[in-house]
Every structure is written in C-alpha cells, then in structure tokens.
Amino acid sequence: MFRTEQMEINMGPQHPSTHGVLRIKLRLDGERVVDSWPVIGYLHRGIEKLAESREYIKITPYTDRTDYVNAMSGNLAYLGAVEKLCGIQVPEKAHYIRVIMVELNRIASHLLWLGTHALDLGAMSIFLYGFREREMILDLFEAYCGARLTYNAFRISGVPADLPPGWAEECRGFLRLFRERHREYEQILTKNRIWLRRTKGVGVMDAEQCLALSVTGPVLRAAGVARDLRKDESYAIYDRLDFEVPLAQAGDTYARYEVRMAEMLQSARMVEQCLDQMPAEGDLMSMKGRKMRPKKDEEVYFAIEGPRGEQGVYLISDGTDRPYRCKLRNSSFANLQALAPMIQGELVADVVAVIGTLDIVLGDSDR
Amino acid sequence: MSAELITNLVLITVKIGVVLTLVALAVPLMILMERKIIGFMQARIGPKRVGPSGVLQTIADGLKLLLKEDIIPDKADKTVFRLAPLIILIPAFVAFAVIPFSGTSVTILGQEITPWITDVNIGLLFVISISSVGVFGIVLGGWASNSKYPLLGGLRSAAQMVSYEVPLGLALVGGLMWAGTASMVGIVEAQRQAGLWFFVPQVAGVLIYFIAGVAETNRAPFDLPEAETELVSGFHTEYSGMRFGLFFIAEYANMIVVSAVATTLYFGGWLRPFPSVEALAFLDIFNFILPGAWGPFLSGIFWFTVKVSAFIFIYYWIRATFPRYRYDQLMAVGWKWLLPLSLANILVTGVLLLWLQPAPA
Amino acid sequence: MIDFFKNLTLWELWQGMAVVIRNQFRKKVTVHYPRERIELRPRFRGVPRLRYHPESGEELCISCLMCEQICPDDCIAIEWEKPPGSKGRILKSFIIDYQRCCLCGLCVDPCPTKPLTAIYMSHDFELAGYDRQDLVTGRKELHEGRPVTVYTR
C-alpha cells in the first residue's frame, strides 16, 4: 500500500560543516544512513610529486601545507625523516624548541577542532572563544618565526633562530590563561545535557575496528588502546618529559571529546616543563652550511604523533640531493576510512557530529 | 450604518495600522540586536559599518533582499510556493490583536483609545490557536520546493511544532488557573489584585512554557529544521529574495508573540515590579512627567517593552550558548519530559489553589 | 538525590549560560581593519624585499644567486654583469614574482652579505591588485616597496 524510496543525498564539497572540501554521498532511508561513499581528492595538489623534483631543503614549505592546521608537526615529521636518512644529530636546545612549538601547535589544533565541532552541533560561542585563545598561540608563533599558519620554522639539523627575548614569559602567561579558559569550555560543554545526548553513543568504534582500519590518534585512544608514539617510540626529547596519555573506553564521540580536552592540558604541562628544562645556551643547528650526503638507495620511515594521529614520512634517496620518493603518511586519510562504518545506521544529524569528531583536515588527506 | 459603527471601524483600523507598523519596525531592530548581542557574547562586535554603530544594517539587508532575483524552482508547485510565506506571516501578525500593551486608556478627540486592539474573553486561547496555523506555512513551503533538503526540513519542523503545541497549551493552563480568566487584560488585572506576578507560584510553568515557546518558534536549541550546518537552511533553502525575508520576519514576530504572552501571563504585563507596594510608585516614571491618563499609559508601555525585551535577550543568550538537539531527541524531550511535567504542574497548581482558597460553602 | 534535582532544575545549563554572559563583558577582540592596524611582530614574514647598505647607501646584493637557487617556487630572477677590471658582480636586474612567492623565508637564510642581508622579509602583506603583471616586482619597487592604496572609509 505504501511505497518507500531511498533517497540519495550529496553532502557536497561545499557544505557548511564538512571540514574542507569533502564530499560524501549518502543513501538515506528516511533519516537513517543506509550507505555512504566519501569522495576525496578535491584538495590534491601533487605535493609528493613536487617533492621528487626539489632538493631536500626546499621541500619544507610544502610540508607546512599538507596539514595546514598543525604545520609544525608536518615540518617535524619531514625533517626528522631527513635527519634520520643522513644520520644528522640535532642539538639539544633545538630539540627543546621544536617540542615547545609542536606541543603549542597541538593545543592550537585541538582548539580549532573543538570550535568547529561545537559549531557544527550548534554551540556557536565556543568557536569564537576557542579562536580567541588560538590567536594568542598564533601570536606566539608569529613572534618566533614570522608566520601564523605556514611556519617553515625548522631547518634540517635544528632551528634557525632562538626564542626572542620575552617569549618565554608571554608563553607562560598564555598557559596560565589557557587553563582558566579550558575550565570555561568544560563548564559549557562537558556536563551539558544537550551535548551529552548529541555525543554519547554516537559514532562508536571499538578497539578491534580501529586497529583493523589503521586508525590512530585520539580516535584510537578513545577506544581504549594506549598507543601514543611520544611514549612508545619516543623521538626528540619526549623521554625527558613527564606527561600522561589520556585514555577512554567508550569509543564514542563523547570519549573522543574527553580525550582531546585532556590532551590539551597535557600539552600545556609539557610546554611548561620544556621551558623550565631548556638550556639557556646551546647550538641551534648542527649542520649550518655543510652539504648533506644521503646514501644511495637508502629508505627511512619516521613518524611522529600529530594531533590527529600518526603522521609519518617515508623517504627513499637515490644519492643525490633530491629524494627519489617522498611519501607522506597522514592520519586524516587513514581516519577517513573509519567514517563509513561509523555512520552506518545513524541519523543524518549524526553524520555531522562524526565528521567533526574524526578531526579531518582535507589538506592532510589529499596532499 | 450608524456613526458609532463607523467610528469603531476606523478606530480599529487605525490601531491595527499602528501596531503593525510598530511590529514591522521592531523586527529589523530585533534582527540587528541579535547580531550585536550574540556578537558581544562571542567577544566580537556585530555589524558596525552601516550607519552609526551598525544601526542601519538590517535596512541594508532588507534592501538587498528586495533587489534580488526571485528564483522559483522549475518543478516547484508555484501557487503553494508563493503562498507559503504568507501562511506563516499572517498568523504571526494576527496574534497581536489581543495583546495588551498598557493598562490605562487615553482619550483623543473625544474617543477612548484602549491600549489593545481588542480584548476578547478567550484571548489566550485565540493566541495559541492562531499560532498553530503557522505550521502550515512551513510544511507547505518545504513541500512546494520540490527538493530534498527543504522536504526534510519542512517535515521535521511540522512534527516539532505540532508536538510542542501540547506542552505549550498545558503550561499556560497553570497560569490560567491562577488568573481565573482567559482574557489577556483580565489576567494582568488578576495579577495586580493578587499583588504578585504569577511566575512566583508557577516557576515550573514559566520554564515549560518558555522552552516550548522556543521550540515553537524554531529557535536554538530546537532549530534543527533550519540548521545551517546540517541541512543548509532547511525548509527555506529554495526561497530567495524577499520571500525568504518574509519567513525571517515571521520567525521574529513569533518570538515577540511568545515573549508577549509570557510577559502577560507570568510577569505582570504592563505592571511595574511590586504593583501593590505604594513606596515603589516612583518606578512608574511617566506618571510624574505627563498629565492625566497619558502618564500611566506610557508607563505601562514602558514596562511592557522592558519585559518583552528581557525575554528576547534570553532567546539570544540561549542561542549563543547551547548545541542543537537532534531531531528524535527533540521529540523525546517534548513528549517524554515537557508533557508529563506540564500535567504535573496543573495537578500541583490545582491542589495549591484548593488549599489556599477553599470552595465557598 | 542532589543529582535528580540538578537534573530537574537544568542546573548545568544555567552554568553554561553564566559563562557566556561573563564573556559578554570581556574585552572584544575585533580589530577595525583597515582603520586600525594590528601591530606586527619584528620577525613577521611579509614579502621579500631588497635593501641598501645602511651607511654607504649602495646596493648590498652581490648577485651570488643563492636566493634564486633555494627558492622552492622559482620566483626570483636575477641578471648580473661583470664590471670591467674588478672582481665581483654588479646587479643588473632583480625580479621577484609575488604571484608565486609563498612567503617561506628560505631566501633570507643563505644570503651572505654583511652587516645586513641584502634580501629580507618585509612587513608588507597587502598584495592585492587588479592586474597579474602588477605583482611581478622589479628592483626599484623591491627597494622602495609597492604602492599601497589607502582607503578613507
């Protein structure tokens, strides 16, 4: 007597809440998602191909622009791979400065995640409060390296410049303020009944599914798997810092929210420790003005823990000063695979929540 | 046609004209204040370049909407498409017919002018029933657009508005029991005689009414039908230019109606705070400035405006703070929480009234 | 028991609203650009420009072509000539194509001149123009800066 049809809807590349140009084709039965196909590639710029025809030094600005929200991590992953390839040691003070910048960038990236996720779900004010704090971090970066989004702040074998005078005080002042504001964000969202209803039980991924799809980062830690490259395969000077890796068990959107909020506080703790432990004097670059000599046919893979998950660079050298192949393993591309199983059977309104909680940056995914 | 009938008709027409003009002027002001107030809450300034401090922004927006091309989708049902904004706009304005703006009448040219257009003795019921008609506009607008997103938005909105009508009405019953009459003027008079505003014994009633009112007007946190981030504008996606403007005006006019009813029923309408305490008579400032009946007339309008503005500020405050309810959770809140609570409210109010004023022998 | 009442009276919702209203009274972060300008930090990386020797006023650039070689986007084009009789090079023309420049700052690193580097990252960031050729900047504008239109309203 009644006939129902399944509707195919396109959450197109231009949509107020897909973070970047992500297109998802949804097949809906009423309001439930029956099937979904993400379509990516709208932001592909051929960075890996460009890297094959540029010298190692010149590729650093390109790695800023893959995951543009946390460009410092992109720089660190690539330079770490180059230094591993050529066997270059980075001086201690440079390591400290790199870790300070990367952790501050983690806070900035999570603030952007929080703002856009809350905005998608309707809480508009957190977006602007988060960005107000993020602007302070970007001011700190501007004082250090001169740019606010695409930093190019590190060089092979170190950092080009020391922290400017007064930077450490400004940074500590910011961290004090940030902890207060973090409490405010928690007051608005963490126990809010509307937020709880929108995020608890939505987009559940348990540990097995995450591992099967090679999902890393806060998504994996929210499912209960304690995998953090900063602790498991420590790089730079993370082994000297005292921090915890937040874990949750539920694997739903609310668990990921809790994990990322806790991570912001842990990063603040790490930055303070670095500022305390950093030597006042020291070399900044160990290889200034000398030629790099990578061996022929050497392959190296170096991964760091970015805010979104494991961010790695795989380099193959052919003996010259240009790489034979530079592959960027980024977390957004892998995490995006988790989208389809997460929204199966959920309502359309939950699709938006799930995209927000996966914290996808399309520049990262499409390179 | 007697002279009295003609005078009455002319008087009512003039009053309707005045009230509609005032509402039509208030709506752009509300839109501007929303942008500025929500901006302030978000550590930024709202519009500021058009006119001094951004005051002419809405007029600029209105002009822009008037000058836009009127796009009607090819496969849309053209008659219904054109009618839908009117179906939601007209009830929003008609509801103003029974809202009292002040307490005392003034005399102009020998005619007594009451500060309300009319006062029927089923005033409250009239407002609720008229605002229910507005649901049609949304459903028909979504359906006539012949497009997927508006369809989803229209259906959602229809279900939401219909299901929140019930707690809305039931919450008002609590206040009605205290007032003893459904005439809007009578309700405020009852508050003046009792010496207290009815929100004091009816805290639950006010909360339920306000939440149901926010859901009725499709405002955050119940604004899923027009959620930008999920449905790209919901039922008014396909509307452009001034048709969209009419939907917008209707939404804000509905907000004023809900606030005005809440003010009248629970917060004393045009009365000043503590109306029976003589020591606070100075709060009716216009009484001492203007002679005769004009003083109380303007004092009443002043206090009414202050209270309605406070409610509208709360609307904006709520919008800036809370995330949105998902559609099925929205329905769950309406049917599983607000409805039983409003029934419980009626029960408690009834018992309370019986205990305070036992039935005459 | 307390949780039940907190739930009924919407306790955490009022707390959230209190935070928002507190923010209403904080300082606003809007900067009224272009009437107000944000103060840039000293190390801000705008577009690369050339400079003269601070004391003698002569051209600092020695046409070593290091910045041209290191630029990832190939946006610098230098022409030089050998002066008769002396060692060294004289700069003939220096063109930076601002359409391609990604403001990465790599060109400043290898510049060898003393006491200041010949090429430096200026604080100019307002690059909008009506014609693409406007952005291909020659030696004179690299020294003096591109003309910027100032709006009065």
Verbal overview:
Chain A has 367 residues and is α+β, with helices and mostly antiparallel strands. Helix content of chain A is 47%, strand content 13%. Chain A is built from 15 helices and six strands. Chain A has helices at residues 47-51, 60-64, 71-86, 92-120, 124-145, 167-189, 193-199, 207-212, 218-222, 229-232, 253-277, 331-336, 339-343, 348-358, 362-366; strands spanning 7-11, 23-29, 32-39, 296-306, 309-318, 323-329. Chain A is globular, with a radius of gyration of 21 Å. Chain B is 66% helix and 2% strand. In chain B, a hairpin with a 2-residue loop joins strand 1 and strand 2 (111-113). Chain B is built from twelve helices and two strands; from the N terminus they run H-H-H-E-E-H-H-H-H-H-H-H-H-H. Chain B is mainly alpha-helical and 361 residues long. Chain C is α+β, with helices and mostly antiparallel strands and 153 residues long. Chain C has helices at 2-8, 11-24, 66-70, 139-144; strands spanning 48-50, 76-81, 90-97, 119-121, 136-137. Chain C has a three-stranded antiparallel sheet with strand order 2-3-5. In chain C, strands 1-4 form a two-stranded antiparallel sheet. In chain C, strand 2 (76-81) and strand 3 form a beta hairpin.
